[in-house]
């Protein structure tokens, strides 16, 4: 069945439908990873986005079973029973995957979750367009369109996407563990919880707008998440209040969590031209000048030109020289823009 990808600037890409035969809109972004599409599509950070995968053949190892670990978390996905991407754009879709864990094809899985995809698109041309002109709003429409007339687009970043992906009630993992980590769920990925549990910690996952009492935890974790950090004013205010408390507890943030901690400390964030999304982005550690390969997924960044007193830059992206982390000079506060815990991706900075 034919389908069309319509961009806000009037450009139309034609292709074939796979997954759910329905329409969907969102911000069109590209990701350069060769593998890891089940993890990426279940990453809450992609909520409200149409994901373009630059690797030419997608779906060749299928989709694994929805196995749960002993704590009720899905083993092979970043969320339980949820695809967060609004749609998927690929060059070629594989309908006959080969992998011993494969239970569904990518198309069958997307149909089950009512997420549309379009294949047969020149993803190289589309990626080049986004790189040169910046991210653009788009819509996957069933059928062949010759004109964008009458098509409306929705800017998802004007909504509080974090509130839509965050849990509503606190959840505790490994209750007998230590230290006690309070994890603010702005779009938390399951592997982040596993990384803490692997190190013996108790993890109390709380909603994005939860009040923070330093006597309730030994350390605070700020998770990744979707959208513009400006929309998370409540979270930023809660973090800022914690930074002013006489009781000092360690704080660590990842991705959106990095942006929220930076904002609470007094930094400014900005929307990037096309963002950084991939599994092999090099970053320099400021202190040692050592280069690390990182996995990233973000469309906003921190302006580190004027860091507040007491803070310094921790990592810098080699490709575009944007900030990749900050650290406090005296207190145990730091955050990184990349994902040290990511699967499938490098594990250079997991520990």
TrEMBL record:
GO terms for biological process: 'de novo' pyrimidine nucleobase biosynthetic process; glutamine metabolic process. It comes from the Eukaryota. Signal peptide: none annotated. Residues 1-141 form the Carbamoyl-phosphate synthase small subunit N-terminal domain. The keyword Acyltransferase does not apply. SMART domains: CPSase_sm_chain (SM01097). Its EC number is 6.3.5.5. Transmembrane segments: none annotated. One of its GO terms (molecular function) is carbamoyl-phosphate synthase (glutamine-hydrolyzing) activity. Pfam families: CPSase_sm_chain, GATase. Keywords: ATP-binding, Glutamine amidotransferase, Ligase, Nucleotide-binding. It catalyses: hydrogencarbonate + L-glutamine + 2 ATP + H2O = carbamoyl phosphate + L-glutamate + 2 ADP + phosphate + 2 H(+); L-glutamine + H2O = L-glutamate + NH4(+). HAMAP family: CPSase_S_chain (MF_01209). Belongs to the CarA family. Heterodimer composed of 2 chains; the small (or glutamine) chain promotes the hydrolysis of glutamine to ammonia, which is used by the large (or ammonia) chain to synthesize carbamoyl phosphate. This is Carbamoyl phosphate synthase arginine-specific small chain. It comes from Culex pipiens.
């Amino acid at each position: 069945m034919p389908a069309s990808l319509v961009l806000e600037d009037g450009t139309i890409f034609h292709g074939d439908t796979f997954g759910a035969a329905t329409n969907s809109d969102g911000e069109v972004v590209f990701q350069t990873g060769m593998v890891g599409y089940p993890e990426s599509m279940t990453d809450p950070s992609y909520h409200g986005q149409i994901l373009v995968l630059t690797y030419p053949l997608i779906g060749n190892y299928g989709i694994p079973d929805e196995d749960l670990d002993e704590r009720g978390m899905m083993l092979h996905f970043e969320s339980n029973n949820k695809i967060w991407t609004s749609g998927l754009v690929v060059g070629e879709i594989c309908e006959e995957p080969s992998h011993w864990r494969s239970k569904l094809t990518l198309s069958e899985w997307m149909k089950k979750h009512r997420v549309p995809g379009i294949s047969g698109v020149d993803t190289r041309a589309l990626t080049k367009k986004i790189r040169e002109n910046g991210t653009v709003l788009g819509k996957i429409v069933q059928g062949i369109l010759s004109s964008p007339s009458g098509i409306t687009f929705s800017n998802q970043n004007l909504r509080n996407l974090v509130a839509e992906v965050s849990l509503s009630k606190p959840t505790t993992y490994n209750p007998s563990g230590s230290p006690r980590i309070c994890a603010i769920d702005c779009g938390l990925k399951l592997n982040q919880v596993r990384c803490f549990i692997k190190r013996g910690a108790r993890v109390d996952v709380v909603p994005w707008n939860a009040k923070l009492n330093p006597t309730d935890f030994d350390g605070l974790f700020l998770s990744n998440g979707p959208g513009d950090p400006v929309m998370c004013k409540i979270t930023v205010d809660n973090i800022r209040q914690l930074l002013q408390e006489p009781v000092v507890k360690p704080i660590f943030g990842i991705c959106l969590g990095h942006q929220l901690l930076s904002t609470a400390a007094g930094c400014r964030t900005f929307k990037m031209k096309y963002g950084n999304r991939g599994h092999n982005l090099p970053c320099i550690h400021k202190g040692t000048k050592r280069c690390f390969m990182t996995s990233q997924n973000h469309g906003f960044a921190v302006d580190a030109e004027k860091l507040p007193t007491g803070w310094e830059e921790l990592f810098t992206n080699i490709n575009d020289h944007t900030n990749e982390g900050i650290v406090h000079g005296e207190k145990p506060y730091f955050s990184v823009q990349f994902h040290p815990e990511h699967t499938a991706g490098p594990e250079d900075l997991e520990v």
